[in-house]
């Protein structure tokens, strides 16, 4: 009886297929006006990205958290 050989991908091959999507660095000053405009005008494509995570610096996160809970009243 002949022995059947099986080929398994190496762990390195699995890492390449599970890699995260490519990222691009963008200045917040360039990003905010575009996102604000898309939000204001209800562009549907913006909804496709609402669950995406973004990376921000720790100091910006702290400022945003403080602003969230301590907004001055008008």
Compose a concise summary of this entry.
The protein is mainly alpha-helical and 74 residues long. Helices cover 43% and strands 0% of the residues. The protein has a domain at 22-51.
| Number of E-type strands | 0
| Residue windows where pLDDT falls under 50 for at least 5 positions | none
What sort of overall outline do the alpha carbons produce when their principal axes are compared? Answer: elongated
Main sheet, how many strands, which sense, barrel? none
Q: Specify the number of helices.
A: 3
Q: Strand content of the residues, in percent?
A: under 5%
Percent helix range: 40-55%
Order of helices and strands: HHH
Structural class: mainly alpha
Provide a descriptive summary of the structure in words.
This protein is mostly helical. It has helices at 11-17, 28-40, 58-69. The protein has a domain at 22-51. The longest helix has 13 residues, at 28-40. The chain is elongated. It starts with 10 loop residues before the first helix and ends in a 5-residue tail after the last helix.
